[in-house]
Amino acid sequence: MSYNIxxxxxxxxxxxxxxxxxxxxxxxxxxxxxxxxxxxxxVSKPENRLNQExxxxxxxxxxxxxxxFGDGEFAEKALAAGVERVVSKDEIPxxxxxxxxxxxxxxxxxxxxxxxxAMPLVGRYLGQALGPRGKMPRPLxxxxxxxxxxxxxxxxxxxxxRNTPTFHVKVGHVTMSDRDIxxxxxxxxxxxxxxxxxxxxxxVVVKTTMGPAVQVSY
Length: 218
What we know:
Elements: H1 5-19, E1 29-36, E2 51-55, E3 66-69, H2 72-81, E4 85-87, H3 91-96, H4 99-108, E5 111-115, H5 119-130, E6 138-140, H6 146-153, E7 156-160, E8 166-173, H7 178-194, E9 201-208, E10 214-215
Parallel strand pairs: 3-4, 3-5, 5-6
Antiparallel strand pairs: 1-8, 1-9, 2-7, 9-10
Helix pairs in contact: 1-7, 2-6
């Protein structure tokens, strides 16, 4: 299925214009809301709730924050690849001792990676903090090339549906062009189509952080 990219781009441009009408000074993000018809998607059933990562074609700004678990060469490569923080294996049990510290770690990063031999520790001590948020680390061997992995995560979003038949996802930033944001929106629509939910969509809207919602025609 092909989309009317010009129409989607026009909606992004309109959202951008309306989002700056109030003289807002800080740089805003663009958020997309996909709303499904309630009668056609029963989200009381767990199997009907979406919870999956999606790689966007264009990197968001600021990029998603990635944290790594590991030591030695793996830690060095992770930092070189652009992760925000590295947690050593010795630190994992210490973080687990304080509920607030565990929660801060889980909420503070979008994605986690871990060297394979750190995974048992992560599961044992931090599984309860990371698991329910869908943030358990991706295990990687010590010799893995982390550059492409981290780069991929920096343009990855999580599409998650909870108790209502809708999901919200970040698709851009005011520093990005309207076309790049539109391309990211198309990727989200492709994702929904791949889940065979496209015909159940009731509406799609885009907005800046502080701006009004603008209907997306696709």
